[in-house]
Amino acid sequence: MDGFLIFLQSIRWQDVVDITLCSYILFRCYVIFRITNAFRILIGLAFLWIFQRLAVSIGLIVTSWVIQGITAVAALIIIVVFRNEIRSVFQVKNIKTLFWGLPQQPFHTPVQIIADSVMDLARKRIGALIVFPGKEDINEKIQNGILWDGAISKEMITSIFWEDNPVHDGAIIIEDDRIHEVGVILPLSHRQELPSYYGTRHRAAVGLAESTDSLIVVVSEERGTVQVVKGSTITPVLKKDDLEKHLQQHLGLVVKDPSGQKKEKIEIRIAAMVSVILITSVWLTIARGLDTLVTFEIPIEYMNRNPGMEILDASVNSIKIQLGGSGPLMRALRPEHVRVKIDLGKSVVGQNIYTITNENISLPPGIILKSFDPAVVEVTLDVPDKKDLPVQVDWTGKLPENLRMEKVTIEPSIVQIIGGKQLLKNITTVYTEKIPLESIQSSRTVIANLALSPASLKVAPGFKDKIAVECTVKDLSKNGQ
After folding, report:
1. Pick the CATH number of 385-475 from 2.170.120.40, 3.40.720.10, 2.40.128.20, 1.10.1040.10
2. Cα–Cα distances in Å, from 375 out to 82, 102, 273, 304?
3. Which residues of the chain have pLDDT under 50?
4. Do the domains at 290-382 and 385-475 have one common CATH topology?
5. Exposure on the CB side of residue 38, measured as CA atoms within 13 A
6. Which pLDDT score, from 0 to 100, does residue 140 have?
7. Is 0.70 topped by the overall pTM?
8. What gap in Å lies between CA 326 and CA 292, rounded to an integer?
């Protein structure tokens, strides 16, 4: 129980937004693609992805590579083969339907008007060819269509197929409640078993039905008959009611009963729940299940320091931090993405002790702080001051036995040092760097740097940090002494 509470406390608001947004995107993809032929292929891709993750988790490296390659190729095939369906989904007049609600046809084809018009054309022995596209795109199959975009009416259909109309020999394309194109040329069928009395209209209807999922209505000019062609089936129609049933079934205009509508609502709710469960599972797998640990050495940043004080010393200059998170996040993590800050706003002159907490460590979203060391940092601050100090040479070793140091002159003999006031109070002399006496073989001048300790001490501007040490020695062996 305690572990579960700790887990709930570790969930950030970004994680909740992440799961909610991805779940809604997955749910919308289901809603808008569920009535398309590409939906089953998308389900297959989802299962392939699950199998690929399982293969990775149990160490089947080659299998995971193969499935990953198949998934990539299948995704490309979907885009190529079902591009027309995908395009039709996104080419909506109201962009709101992509993000909210169920996709519905805003207009219904007036089946009764069309059926009445077709039967009237048959009685008058006026030839006609009417195409009702299905889910597949037919633009690559038809030719020479003239954009019409006219409202459907009995008078309109009759006038288009009137023998004096220039486009009466071509087909018309009906989509929703509009006559989309007229004068369209359809591909002819080459089936040998078709009756010999079938003319160009019938062969064109059969040719398009063989290569697409469209429904085509043919009115014979010679015999005054009506036939419906879909797939490889040619069905004679004698009654207006029969034609209406064919059209309603093809266009999906059959009214659903209340139980069917209730079933659809239940299906949508189940899809929403499954989307949340799937995305949550993926999030747990990526963000929690595959935990990767890394350790960084992060320098400490001091903030809000009083300009009147300086940092003289600190117990450590960096913090060793161990971080955890999902593999993809940890691979993208760099030391510069992590910051350790200590607020010196309430610091005082002298030694200050700060306890490091999670609030001092800034991490990118999704990264978990596992541990850090040390947990305490000591920082010494002081007020800057200046002090004139005498310079003394730091000799090491001894002169050769035949030599004696007669005189040492230091230039400059006094330098001004800048440092903390408390620190300078305890310093009375500054030394040069070590000068070995063995190197003094004769009288000469040695240039030596100042050895300032601690490193926070500095030479004031206008004073030299290099000291000239003039050494005068006497050779005792030449004087017989």
Report:
1. 2.170.120.40
2. 60, 56, 45, 21
3. 93, 105-107, 256, 481
4. yes
5. 23
6. 83
7. no
8. 6
Secondary structure, 3-state, the chain:
CHHHHHHHHHCCHHHHHHHHHHHHHHHHHHHHHCCCCHHHHHHHHHHHHHHHHHHHHCCCHHHHHHHHHHHHHHHHHHHHHCHHHHHHHHCCCCCHHHHCCCCCCCCCCCHHHHHHHHHHHHHCCCCEEEEECCCCCCCCCCECCEEEEEECCHHHHHHHCCCCCCCCCCEEEEECCEEEEEEEECCCCCCCCCCCCCCHHHHHHHHHHHHCCCEEEEECCCCCCEEEEECCEEEEECCHHHHHHHHHHHHCCCCCCHHHHHHHHHHHHHHHHHHHHHHHHHHHHHHHHCEEEEEEEEEEEEECCCCCCEEEEECCCEEEEEEEEEHHHHHHCCHHHCEEEEECCCCCCEEEEEECCHHHEECCCCCEEEEEECCEEEEEEECEEEEEEEEECCEECCCCCCEEEEEEEEECCEEEEEEEHHHHHCCCCEEECCEEHHHCCCCEEEEEEEECCCCCCEECCCCCCEEEEEEEEEECCCCCC
In this structure, the strands spanning 414-420 and 444-451 are: unpaired
pLDDT at 106: 45
pLDDT of the residue at 99: 63
Identify whether the C-beta of residue 381 lies closer than 8 Å to the C-beta of residue 341: no
Q: What pLDDT is stored for residue 213 in this prediction?
A: 87
Q: How far apart are the first and last CA of the chain?
A: 94
Second-level CATH architecture of 111-251: 3-Layer(aba) Sandwich (3.40)
Q: What is the CATH number of domain 290-382?
A: 2.170.120.30
What is the distance between the alpha carbons of residues 144 and 133, in angstroms, rounded to a whole number?
17
Q: Which residue has 């989904």 as its token pair?
A: 89
Domain ranges (residues) in the chain: 10-102+265-287, 111-251, 290-382, 385-475
| Cα torsion 451, 452, 453, 456: sign | negative
